[in-house]
Amino acid sequence: MKSTKHFDVVIVGAGFAGMYMLHKSRELGLTARVYEAGGGVGGTWYWNRYPGARCDIESMQYSYSFSEELQQEWDWSERYAAQPELLSYANHVADRFGLRSDIQFDTRIDRAEFDGSRGIWRVATSVGDAVTARFVILATGVLSSAQLPMIKGIDSFAGDIYHTARWPHEPVDFTGRRVGLIGTGSSGVQATPVIAGQADHLTVFQRTANFSLPARNAKLTDQQRQEIRSNYPEIRRFAREQSRTGVYVPLPDRGALDDSEQTRRAKYEAQWERGGLGFLSLYNDLLRNRASNDTAAEFVREKIAEIVEDERTAKLLQPTTHPLGAKRICVDTDYFATFNRPNVSLVDIRANPIEEIGPDGVRTTEGDHKIDVLVFATGFDAITGSVLKIDIRGRDGQRLQEKWADGPRTYLGLMSAGFPNLFIITGPGSPAGLTNAIVSIEQHVEWIGDCLSHLKAHDITTIEAGREAEDEWVALVNEVASKTLYPLADSWFMGANIPGKPRVFLPFVESVARYRQICLDVAEQGYRGFVTNGARQVRKAAAT
Ligand code: NAP
After folding, report:
1. N or C: which end of the chain has fewer CB within 10 A?
2. pLDDT, tens digit, for every residue of 365-397?
3. Which domains, and CATH codes, for the chain?
């Protein structure tokens, strides 16, 4: 009979979360196997190879801090690294820590079922492996389940169709082609200027105008790198223990309306010139007070009007449907200026929706657009999408899909009641999605690592979220979100971008620092709110 392999830990995904979780598991002396659907490491940066893809958080902060040697030896070339460099970094980490020997690529986890009698998970893969594990750790990513809208006639399109999050490994040449791009979130906003520079014509189909800020990307000098490196202890400490979003930026001490209009404007101007997401950190109430938010939103709308020459196009590009930041702000290089090019046009599909796609283009209610290549930058089934693609069955065969039918339920975003020994890195109900992803990943991996050590030290076999603690946490996540402007936007934070997805605010809108402290306190208080079972109890349950 074929024997089933057993691991202490099965990790799903070899992005930045899965790689660090593997490293941590080994440090703890655990046997671990990572399963990765892609052909290489890097997660987001493996899949999102579209032209213009780059980080929107400065690379020297969007990088691992767990190894001093690693952060001292890696040279980031630009303020915001482009996708190829981020992928090289992921590969470097995999090689440096010898991770590949425990990663199985081109393999999805299809199913994971908890066997309560033995206190283990039975895991089935897309290539027919069946393994068991004490712990399953989902490192499936916040933005990994790409969504391609089922627009009528899409299958009849005669040209090539690409999705930004499933971009081919070979370069795509748009020379001489008429390209249609659907979607104006971060991906579309980054891809637009690059595709426009190559294509014969680019038509951007916009449903919702988005706020975008200039990146002001630049090469990093040796001196800049050295300054940051020598300040790393403080930068990393601040990001973890004091920051709102896991980024080293000064914390605002006042609301936007506490400053005179002149002072406020000067701050907005200076930040616009500095570039990047720091805009939201200028004041402490931009995401809480609509009047404050309006001042910033109006400033950005004015900038768009200054940049875009055609008045009608400028008007269409000015976001009016949601407060600034309630959808994730984009960070761009020449996005708005691209619409001044003679080979670029903007189509308003909010006013004139797409009716269907035909062999040679897109028909909106306003008319036909001839297209040779279609690029979908239509985003992701975020935060829960990749978790729920797996058929996960917990205690008594309960399916996670059923449990989460009306929205995800977790305690701390880390575990869900009824699913013992199943951890989620950057899960729903944690601040992930709103934060510097690597800071959130490291915090979760380290918390889970400490938890696994605790279980071992105390001869505990299973741990799971308690129902009461979970109910309280879900209520808190909702309560905190309701005090902000976030719910005012139809965003992926709300599940609003996926037809039929429950509208629930998915992340915990608290600062990275406060959330981390809550998680630490819970652990310190003997994993308050979690339910644990000793080895003896599990054996007894099995015998009855
Ligand atoms: P997104 O923000 O969800 O944007 C998707 C776009 O597609 C939106 O403009 C959306 O319009 C449009 N869309 C979706 N379905 C459509 C349909 N059926 N018909 C027409 N338009 C449709 O996705 P994303 O741009 O891939 O970005 C997702 C997140 O990934 C970002 O918010 C960010 O956190 C991350 N990201 C970061 C970077 C970076 O700079 N490092 C780059 C890319 C992505 P509506 O707004 O009307 O729904």
Report:
1. N
2. 999 999 999 999 999 999 999 999 999 999 999
3. 5-145+382-543 (3.50.50.60), 249-309 (no CATH)
User: pTM surpassing 0.85?
Assistant: yes
Q: For residues 290 and 323, is the Cβ–Cβ distance under 8 A?
A: yes
Tell me the per-residue pLDDT of 3-30, one tens digit each, with 9 for 90 and over. 689 999 999 999 999 999 999 999 999 9
Q: Considering only CA atoms, which of 300, 338, 90 is closest in space to residue 190?
A: 338
Of 299, 298, 267, nearest to 283 by C-alpha is 267
Substitution candidate for ligand 1 out of 205, 329, 378 with most atoms within 8 A of CB: 378
Are 100 and 91 spatial neighbours (Cβ–Cβ below 8 Å)? no
Q: What is the DSSP string of 265-323?
A: HHHHHHHHHH-SGGGGGSSTTTTT-HHHHHHHHHHHHHHHHHH--SHHHHHHHS--SS-
Q: List, chain by chain if needed, residues with CB within 6 Å of any ligand 1 atom.
A: 55-56, 143, 149, 164, 182-188, 190, 207-208, 328, 331, 349, 377-380, 492, 497
DSSP-derived secondary structure letter, 510 = S
